[in-house]
Design brief:
The chain has about 475 residues and is an alpha+beta fold. It has 3 domains: about 100 residues, Sandwich (Immunoglobulin-like); about 100 residues, Immunoglobulins (Immunoglobulin-like, Sandwich), CATH 2.60.40.10; about 210 residues, Rossmann fold (3-Layer(aba) Sandwich), CATH 3.40.50. The protein is built from 8 helices and 32 strands. The strands form 9 sheets. Strands 21-20-22-23-32-31-30-26-27 form a 9-stranded mixed sheet, sandwiched between helices. It has a 5-stranded mixed sheet with strand order 2-8-7-4-5, with no helix packed on it. About 35% of the residues are buried.
Length: about 475
């Protein structure tokens, strides 16, 4: 059957010819598919597809070549592989690192660091006033291929000066002995850990070798005579230095030119602590007695002018006490028990001697055991008042040692609290029995077992009705606290 017959048959609707045509079409389609598959198989075998390298992206981009940031920076990156998976990344901060095309964990390149993370925070150490860092990251696929270019970003680290300041309430008193403590806080926008050190100097900032280093993890310094605290006015200067060598603004203490800081050298081995803020002649009374016995004494007023002479730290308080062999501490009805607690135990332990006298308006304190520093264990039940001519008696043991009888010469001493001795302490003075006013014989003065600390719960200046207080001081200072 020729082509004309076939065409005629199809057009005329000959069913036999149409059936044969369908069969021929099916055979042609099958043969075509076989030829295509054969051709594809031949191409795959002779020309395998090449692995395509992954691409890498950074989450930080800038329109400018340099991006100004702070020295602690978080980088985010990710990768994409068109024919596989990304198994990790390599990165470097070396702009001259070898541009590697593949990564082999068995033969690593020291310029590059491998990671499976997609984020990390780096502290970019300053090498000068400003520093440029180049971050280069490449994605690695499952066949070890590396992004041929990677993602690169340059960062300019602009160094900011550190800042140092004296916190509120830490000003040096206008007058100190040859002990002074300075407290500060330092910050840096580049990160507080970029502060390398602090430096201070006394009086003169012009000499570069006069600055003294203090570690960055310390925020206070206590100076003594050995550090240059001599009689006269002084100024303490402080600055912070960061890792790049940049200095903060120099700050002075006192902070105002109108303020002064005067250092007073001790003139004796005896210190009188004036913890008294009532306008009467009590201070003169004590000063006269002490000087008549000790010859000379230094006075430290820790309460007047809003406690302007009180140092900012307990360490400075203790170091000041330790300039002296003996301390006489007299207080009003609101004694500074917190300062006593933080300093007197260590002072006595270091060999100091203490005589303390005070009374209490209404007993209150932030301390759990407010008299722990003293020979007293606690305070007894309050006695509302004792009046003029009230006798205060030495115990039998101390009476035989010459301790005199005392008599109240004030019109009234209100709010009397007996001082209960510790187990190891002894009672020096008591109130005599008076069943109508109090129970038993309340202890009014105690002494520790080492005879280095005498504590009176009554103001000794109000017990001179018999004129015997000077005698009592002589016995305590010359015979007991020795």
């Amino acid at each position: 059957m020729n082509y004309l017959q076939i065409i005629h048959g199809v057009l005329s609707g000959d069913k036999i010819i149409q059936k044969r045509m369908k069969t021929i079409s099916t055979i042609v389609l099958i043969l075509s598919a076989v030829l295509v598959l054969s051709s594809c198989s031949k191409d795959i075998s002779n020309n395998p597809l090449q692995n395509k390298a992954p691409r890498t992206f950074l989450s930080i981009f800038s329109d400018n070549q340099l991006n100004s940031v702070i020295s602690k920076q978080t980088f985010n990156w990710w990768g994409d592989d068109p024919d596989g998976i990304v198994t990790g990344f390599i990165y470097t901060f070396n702009p001259n690192a070898q541009n590697i095309a593949a990564w082999d964990s068995a033969d690593v390149n020291s310029d590059w660091m491998f990671t499976t993370d997609t984020q990390e925070t780096f502290t970019l150490t300053l090498a000068g006033s400003d520093t440029v860092y180049t971050f280069w990251v490449k994605a690695i696929d499952d066949e070890g291929a590396a992004d041929p270019e990677g993602a690169i970003q340059e960062f300019r680290i602009i160094n900011t000066r550190p800042v140092v300041e004296f916190p509120v309430g830490t000003d040096v008193p206008e007058t100190t002995f040859t002990v002074a403590t300075f407290v500060w806080s330092g910050t840096d926008l580049d990160g507080d850990d970029t502060i390398a050190k602090y430096q201070y100097t006394l009086d003169d900032t012009s000499a570069s070798d006069a600055w003294i280093d203090i570690p960055a993890n310390e925020n206070s310094v206590t100076l003594t005579a050995e550090d240059g605290l001599t009689q006269g006015e002084h100024v303490f200067f402080l600055r912070a230095i960061d890792l790049a060598g940049t200095s903060s603004k120099i700050i002075p203490m006192p902070q105002s030119e109108n303020q002064i800081w005067f250092v007073k050298e001790p003139t004796s081995n005896f210190l009188i602590i004036d913890d008294y803020n009532i306008l009467n002649n009590t201070g003169d009374f004590y000063n006269t007695i002490i000087r008549s016995i000790a010859g000379s004494a230094d006075v430290w007023d820790i309460k007047s002018n809003g406690r302007a002479l009180e140092p900012p730290t307990s360490l400075a308080f203790l170091k000041t006490l330790q300039l002296f062999d003996t301390v006489f501490w007299y207080g009003d009805t609101a004694p500074n028990l917190e300062k006593a607690q933080s300093s007197l135990p260590d002072y006595v332990e270091s060999g100091g001697k203490v005589l303390m006298t005070t009374s209490f308006m209404e007993f209150s304190s932030n301390l759990g055991d407010p008299l722990d520093f003293s020979p007293a264990d606690s305070l007894g039940s309050k006695i509302s008042r004792i009046t003029r001519n009230q006798i205060v008696l030495p115990t039998a043991e101390y009476s035989t040692q010459g301790f005199p009888e005392l008599k109240v010469d004030a019109a009234l001493i209100p709010n009397i609290f007996p001082v209960v001795p510790k187990i190891s302490s002894e009672t020096l003075y008591t109130l005599p029995a008076n069943a109508a006013r109090w129970e038993g014989t309340p202890p009014m003065a105690v002494i520790n077992s080492a005879h280095t600390f005498v504590f009176f719960g009554l103001p000794m200046a109000s017990l001179n009705g018999n004129g015997t207080v000077t005698q009592l001081f002589e016995i305590i200072l010359n015979n007991v606290l020795q």
